[in-house]
Write a structure and sequence with these properties.
By secondary structure, this protein is an alpha/beta fold. The chain contains 17 helices and eleven strands. Strands 1-7-6-5-4-2-3 form a seven-stranded mixed beta sheet, sandwiched between helices. It has a four-stranded antiparallel beta sheet with strand order 8-9-11-10, with helices on one face.
C-alpha cells in the first residue's frame, strides 16, 4: 500500500514539522507604524477583489523594489550596472523563491546544492524535498567562515552530480557573520557553470549588500524577504535581484498567480512607508551589541561562546563541560536550555551546534539575558568546574568584518 510514494519521504522535514520546530516569535517589541497599518487596512478593503486572480510577478511591486535596492546600494556601486524591474522577481516568500532557483538548476539529477553548516535550513530542506543532493562543508572555529578548501574540492569534481548552486548568507543565519574578503574572492572566481545564491534576508539589520554587484554578474543572485525587518511574515513576499536572463529563467518555472494580491499590496505599501517601518533599526543594532556584551560576559564565566553578528539575533555555543562529555550530550544540554527559554515565551531556537537568540526591545532583552543565565546555571554551565576549565575563545572583530565587502550600504 502507498508504494507509489517516494521512499525517502520519511527522512524529509515537512512544513508542519518545520513550523513545530520554529521558536516563538519575540513579543511585540517593534510597534508597527500607525500610518502603515491604517493604509494597509484601507488598501485591503478597497483594492482587493476576492474573485480575481492576482497579477503574476506584479510590475508595480518590482518597480518599487528596484527603486529601494538602488536607494540602499553603496553609492560607489550604483553605476556598475543599471537596476530596473527587469532585474527583480517576486514570489510568495523567500522559500518559494529558493524552490524556483533549485527547479531551474538542479532537478532531475542535473546538479547538487552546496552550503556551509550551520546555515538557514530552508535551502537544504527544499532541495531534499525536490530530490536534489545537498553537499555540505564546515565552518572555521575562529570566525565561522566557510571551509573554502572543502568547497573548492567539491566544485572541482565529485563522484555525484556536479554542484550547480552555491548558497551563502550575507550575513549568515543563524551565526550572523557576513562574508569575509576571502569568501568574496572565492565567490567571484566561481565559473559560470555554478550559480551563487547570496541570502540577504537580514540586509536591513546588517546594512551591507551585494545586490548592485549581482546585477552585473550572470551567475549571482541576491535573495531577500519582507518577513523580517518589514514585519510582513503574515503577508509573505520574497524577491531576488539578478541579471535579466536569470530572472527570465526563474519565471519559466514559476507557478501562475503565485503571490496573493494581499501580500503584493502589503509589500508595496511597506516600501512606501519604509522610513517609519525601519526607523527603529539603529536602536535594534545598539541593543544587539548590548545583548552580545552581556551574554559574552556571561559566557566568559560559564564556558560558552558568543558570536557578534550582523543579523537580528545573537549566536551562542555551549561548549562541552569536560573532555569526557560527548558532542551528543552537549547538544542535549543545549536543547534543554532552548526548551526552557521557549517555554518562557522567549525568542530562542536550536541552530547547528548552538542556539540563536532573537533581539527585541530593551526590556525583553533584559528578561532574555537573565533567563539564559538561569538556564545555563541549571544545566551545568555555571559550575566551578566549567569556570576553571581552560578554553580557547577567539572572536572576529567588528573592524575586520567592516572591511569584508566593498559593497557597504545604508538604509534609505
Amino acid at each position: 500500500m502507498f508504494s507509489f510514494l517516494r521512499r525517502d519521504l520519511p527522512t524529509l522535514v515537512g512544513a508542519a514539522r518545520a513550523r513545530e520546530a520554529r521558536a516563538p516569535e519575540p513579543a511585540p517589541s517593534r510597534p508597527r507604524s500607525r500610518s502603515f497599518t491604517n493604509a494597509l487596512a484601507l488598501a485591503l478593503r478597497d483594492r482587493v477583489a476576492a474573485n480575481r486572480y492576482p497579477q503574476a510577478n506584479p510590475e508595480a511591486l518590482r518597480d518599487a523594489i528596484a527603486e529601494y535596492v538602488r536607494a540602499t546600494a553603496c553609492p560607489a556601486l550604483r553605476s556598475r550596472a543599471p537596476l530596473t524591474a527587469a532585474n527583480v522577481l517576486v514570489d510568495a516568500g523567500a522559500a518559494r523563491v529558493l524552490e524556483l532557483i533549485l527547479k531551474a538548476t538542479c532537478v532531475g539529477g542535473r546538479g547538487a546544492a552546496l552550503l556551509a553548516e550551520p546555515t538557514c535550513p530552508r535551502a537544504r530542506d527544499i532541495a531534499r524535498a525536490l530530490g536534489i543532493e545537498v553537499v555540505t562543508v564546515g565552518r572555521a572555529d575562529d570566525d565561522l567562515s566557510m571551509d573554502l578548501d572543502g568547497a573548492r574540492a567539491e566544485l572541482r569534481g565529485r563522484a555525484g552530480a556536479p554542484v550547480r548552486v552555491v548558497f551563502v548568507g550575507h550575513p549568515n543565519t543563524p551565526t550572523g557573520n557576513p562574508l569575509t574578503p576571502e569568501e568574496l574572492a572565492w565567490l567571484r572566481s566561481i565559473r559560470d557553470d555554478a550559480l551563487v545564491v547570496i541570502d540577504e534576508r537580514e540586509f536591513e539589520y546588517a546594512g551591507e549588500t551585494l545586490a548592485a554587484e549581482a546585477v552585473g554578474r550572470p551567475n549571482w543572485i541576491v535573495l531577500r524577504s519582507f518577513s523580517r525587518a518589514f514585519g510582513l511574515a503574515e503577508h509573505p513576499v520574497g524577491y531576488v535581484v539578478a541579471h535579466p536572463v536569470l530572472i527570465t529563467a526563474l519565471a519559466k518555472v514559476q507557478l501562475p498567480d503565485s503571490v496573493p494580491a494581499t501580500s503584493v499590496i502589503a509589500a508595496w505599501l511597506a516600501l512606501q512607508h519604509r522610513h517609519a517601518l525601519l526607523a527603529d533599526i539603529p536602536a535594534l543594532r545598539s541593543e544587539r551589541r548590548r545583548v552580545f556584551q552581556q551574554l559574552d560576559a556571561l559566557a566568559l564565566a560559564s564556558g560558552a561562546r558568543v558570536w557578534p553578528g550582523r543579523g537580528d539575533g545573537v549566536f551562542m555555543q555551549l561548549v562541552p563541560l569536560s573532555s569526557s562529555e560527548s558532542h551528543a550530550a552537549a547538544l542535549a544540554r543545549r536543547d534543554r536550555v532552548v526548551e526552557s527559554l521557549q517555554n518562557a515565551g522567549l525568542p530562542a531556537r536550536a541552530a547547528g551546534d548552538g542556539l540563536r537568540l532573537g533581539v527585541g526591545a530593551p526590556q525583553q532583552n533584559h528578561v532574555l539575558v537573565a533567563a539564559v543565565g538561569r538556564a545555563m546555571q541549571r544545566w551545568g554551565h555555571g559550575s566551578k568546574r566549567t569556570r576553571d576549565a581552560r578554553r580557547k575563545r577567539r572572536y572576529f572583530s567588528g573592524a575586520q568584518r567592516a572591511s569584508s565587502s566593498s559593497s557597504g550600504s545604508f538604509i534609505a
